[in-house]
Amino acid sequence: MSGAALPRAARDDERATIAAVINAAARAYRGVIPADCWHEPYMGDDELAAEIAAGVRFSVIEDDAAIVAVMGIQDRGEVVLIRHAYVLPAAQRRGLGTRLLEHLRATTTRPVLIGTWAAATWAIDFYRRHGFRVITGADKDALLARYWTVPARQVETSVVLADARY
Q1: Per-residue pLDDT tens over the stretch 8-19
Q2: Which 8-state DSSP code applies to residue 41?
Q3: Hey, CA dihedral for 100, 127, 21, 43, is it positive or negative?
């Protein structure tokens, strides 16, 4: 792979590619998150369409004209959420997730929250390296109930991370 391009807003005609990147990268969760939370595909076309309809705006990074990294941002009023952050396995460890996270954080002055699986220690470590702190317990549950629409089982098995603005 050559040098990756700068982050840019995803186009509507790139939905299938965004889903493919998410599903390829999400395979890392198989066997890590609870089995009853895993499903194939990890994000189906209808679910992706629903996320976009709910206001998730994706940014992407291309390498050799192919999308290799995706990350969404969702306006939730007093906070924004980073949603669906994925880099193709072959493109990982090249700073693409950092580039996308910094790009999206620069688009807001509001606090940024991120939800992820508690067992996804690599994701939690990534966000901690970028100044986020983990919120657990009742505070985490309240944030998930207020800003996300996720099943109770996912609330039980997730964490929320917050940047310094929160």
Answers
A1: 999 999 999 999
A2: S
A3: negative
Length of the chain: 166
- pTM value? 0.94
Closest listed residue to residue 8, CA positions, set 56, 67, 50: 67
- Tokens 């949603």: give the residue: 83
Q: At which residue do the structure tokens 């800003």 appear?
A: 147
Domain ranges of the chain: 8-162
Q: 3-state DSSP call for residue 55?
A: coil
The fold for domain 8-162 equals: Aminopeptidase (3.40.630)
For residue 155, what are the CA distances in angstroms to 11, 24, 36, 134?
31, 23, 13, 14
CA distances from 18 to 63, 79, 162 (A): 14, 24, 25
pLDDT digits (tens, 9 = 90+) for 96-146: 999 999 999 999 999 999 999 999 999 999 999 999 999 989 999 999 999
Q: Please, what is the Cα angle at 51 between 47 and 52, to 5 degrees?
A: 120
Dist. CA 126–CA 163, nearest whole Å:
13
| Structure tokens belonging to residue 62 | 């291309």
For residue 118, the 8-state DSSP code is T
